[in-house]
Amino acid sequence: MLGMVLKRLMLAIPSLIGVVIVTFLLTRALPGDPAAYFAGPAATEEAVAQIRKQLGLDQPLPQQFVRYVGDLARGDMGVALTTGQPVTTEIMSRLPASAELTLLGLLVSVLVAVPLGILAATSPGSMIDHVCRIVTTAGVSLPVFFTGLVLVYVFYYQLGVAPAPLGRLDVFFSAPPQVTGFYLIDSLIARDGEVFVASLKQLLLPALTLAIFSLAPIARMTRASMLAVLGSEFVRTARASGLSPGTVIVTYAFRNAMLPVVTTLGMVFSFLLGANVLVEKVFAWPGIGSYAVEALIASDFAPVQGFVLTMAVMYVILNLLIDILYGLIDPRVRIEA
Amino acid sequence: MSDMAATPSAPTHGIGAVLRHAQYVIGENKVTGFAFGLFMLILLAALIGPYIVPYDPLASNTTAALQGPSAAHWFGTDQLGRDVFSRVIAATRLDFVIAVASVVLVFLMGGLAGVAAGFFGGWTDRIVSRIADTIMAFPLFVLAMGIVAALGNTVENIVLATAIVNFPLYARIARAEANVRREAGFVQAARLSGNGEFRILLGHILPNIMPIMVVQMSLTMGYAILNAAGLSFIGLGVRPPTPEWGIMVAEGAAFMVSGEWWIAFFPGLALMLAVFCFNLLGDGLRDIIDPQRRT
Question: Is some CB atom of chain B closer than 8 A to the CB atom of A124?
Answer without folding.
Answer: no
